[in-house]
Amino acid sequence: MELQQLRYFVAAADLRNFTRAAERCGVAQPSLSQQIAKLEQSLGKTLLDRSGRRVALTDAGEEFYERAVKILSLVDEAERVGSGAVERPRLRVGAIPTIAPYLLPPVLKEFSAKNAAAEVSVVEDLTAEIVSGCIAGDLDVGIVALPIDDAPLHVEQLFREELLVALPARHPLAKKNRVTAAELAREPFVLLSEAHCLGEQIVSYCRQRECPPRVHCRSGQLLTVQELVGLGYGLSFVPEMARATDRSKLRVYRSLAGAKPMRTVAMIWHRFRVQQPTVAAFRETLKKSRTTSVANEK
Questions:
Q1: How far apart are CA 189 and CA 186, in angstroms?
Q2: 298: how many CB neighbours lie within 10 A of its CB?
Q3: What is the C-alpha separation between 79 and 74, in angstroms, rounded?
Q4: Which of 110, 97, 78, 133 is nearest to 282 (CA)?
């Protein structure tokens, strides 16, 4: 058994695809497949099920994957220590764009006050990329909206958040304290693009309420959606945390009558990778921050 074989195996298990795993490892796909086969032969066990469209771990593979990830993580850490290089503690956080600008700044400010030496990097990207980054080890922590495909990830729910109806300030419905799904059915909507989970979550919710939205316009940025609402292009649904930072008088926010649309925000990280104390400190800061915020809201 060789370390390189473990790296190839973990990459294939993470990405569920031999071609993409080979690209990550910088080798030809046949070479990667051959080395994984040799690893299986040396163990006398089949680790990967190759029968479907996507590679899947067998029962033996699940057990071996956990150990392989821990071994590689410890080896990487030992190499860093053995090199003698003095490294700053680091924190690599990923968050989806409808969360990052509202949640992260105050949390990172509090974290940095106690961890001034830490080198912090923030990635804003779509859910699939944040999940992939956490699985691959490119990100230490991800902040996403559920549900996700969480196979090798630890998922810790942080809070549930209401999605509010955003309206132009002069819209007739703005005079009401609450609006109904039936009233929204007649209105044009401005939504996030299909690539964003929030945009599709809103479409799904409206269909469940038998008021599928008439999508007039889509945008890749939530701030642009809010600005278009303010200019009268249509209505939208916006997370409560985005409303809390909106100081514009061009738009207002109202709760929906009846069952309210909600989303669950969660923190994710790899279950088996060894993480620096800095990462654990950030997770605690984030949890404490949300607990304090919820208590203040009550």
A1: 10
A2: 5
A3: 9
A4: 110
Token pair recorded at residue 183: 């009233």
SS3 for 6-46 is HHHHHHHHHHCCHHHHHHHHCCCHHHHHHHHHHHHHHHCCC
Give residues with Cβ within 8 angstroms of 189, minimum separation 6.
213, 214, 215, 216, 234, 235, 236
Task: In whole angstroms, give the CA distance from residue 121 to residue 195.
Answer: 23
No. of helices (H) and no. of strands (E), the chain: 11, 12
pLDDT digits (tens, 9 = 90+) for 1-51: 899 999 999 999 999 999 999 999 999 999 999 999 999 999 999 999 999
What are the chain's domains?
3-82 (1.10.10.10), 89-298 (3.40.190.290)
pLDDT at site 293: 53
| Residue 279: CB atoms within 10 Å | 20
> What is the value of pTM for the model shown?
0.84
User: Alpha-carbon distance 218 to 224, whole Å?
Assistant: 9
Helix (H, G, I), strand (E, B) or coil at 260: coil
Residue 76 pLDDT grade (very low, low, confident, very high; cuts 50, 70, 90): confident
> Where does the chain have alpha helices with state H?
3-15, 18-25, 29-43, 59-82, 100-114, 127-136, 181-184, 197-208, 222-230, 240-244, 277-297
Evaluate if residue 298 carries a pLDDT over 50: no
What does the pLDDT look like over 131-178, one tens digit per residue? 999 998 899 999 999 999 877 899 999 999 999 999 999 999 999 999
Confidence tier at 209 by pLDDT (50, 70, 90):
confident
Distance between CA atoms of residues 231 and 293, nearest Å:
31
